[in-house]
Specification:
The complex is a heterodimer. By secondary structure, chain A is mainly β. Chain A has no helices and eleven strands. Helices cover about 0% and strands about 55% of the residues of chain A. Helix content of chain B is about 0%, strand content about 50%. In chain B, the strands form two sheets. A six-stranded mixed sheet of chain B has the order 2-10-9-4-5-6, with no helix packed on it. Chain B is an all-beta fold. Classes of the chains: A mainly beta, B mainly beta. The interface between A and B is medium-sized, with 22 and 26 residues.
Chain lengths: ~120, ~110
């Protein structure tokens, strides 16, 4: 069974950093693209970042501040978030791409980790 | 970047009604569109991929159509479990943009 479980969310001050983790099971990270998607409470979904075959991509809103990475040995996906602002406050989901293609929809999602940026 | 314009933003309907949600992309994206259902406090769940392919386990009252730049999600006969928010998404490469969402409420 495919599972993704996020952790690492919490309250952080503006300008500080936070690292989210996503522990996966039921598949190998090296074989599928994985993504971070965020959602401001009560608002819509925003794709944040993806990594596939060690190639990373980022939304313009986080480029230069966020870094996505994977640790195959630990079956984990990470999102290092620096220079956080109040606009980064959201529920962050990790999600798996359906197959190894660039054109892969998101077929499995975690339950989300809440990040609150506030002084 | 590809923009996905979804309408309507909200929809009030009754059990048994047929409803249609529309999504328009700003560029040609072939059939690389997925539709997701999200309930409060839960992660999105994929219903339709490649514009019209029903995911395993999804009831047949859900259907998708379209290609190019115009896409629709149709629910043929609303059931109580269907009241949720629906999102379209293109997956024709990054950035993987979502539509703004359609909140389907009980009339």
């Amino acid at each position: 069974e495919v599972q993704l479980v996020e952790s690492g969310g919490g309250l952080v001050q503006p300008g500080r950093s936070l690292r989210l983790s996503c522990a996966v099971s039921g598949f190998t990270l090296a074989d599928f693209p994985v993504h971070w998607v965020r959602q401001v409470p009560g608002k819509g979904l925003e794709w944040v970042s993806s990594i596939s075959w060690n190639t990373a991509a980022y939304a313009d809103s986080v480029k230069g501040r966020f870094t996505i990475s994977i640790d195959n040995a630990k079956n984990s996906l990470y999102l290092e978030m620096n220079s956080l602002t109040t606009e980064d406050t959201a529920l962050y989901f990790c999600a798996r791409g359906h197959d190894s293609a660039v054109t892969a929809y998101f077929d499995h999602w975690g339950q989300g980790a809440l990040v609150t940026v506030s002084s | 970047d590809i923009q996905m314009t979804q309408s309507p933003p909200s929809l009030s309907a009754s059990v048994g009604d047929r409803v249609t949600i529309t999504c328009r992309s700003s560029l040609y994206i072939n059939k690389w569109v997925a539709w997701y259902q999200q309930k409060p406090g839960k992660a999105p769940k994929v219903l339709i991929s490649k514009a019209s392919t029903l995911e395993s386990g999804v009831p047949s009252r859900f259907s998708g159509s379209g290609a190019g730049t115009e896409f629709t999600l149709t629910i043929s006969s609303l059931q109580p479990d269907d009241f949720a928010t629906y999102y379209c998404q293109h997956y024709n490469g990054s950035p993987y943009t979502f539509g703004q969402g359609t909140k389907l409420e009980i009339k």
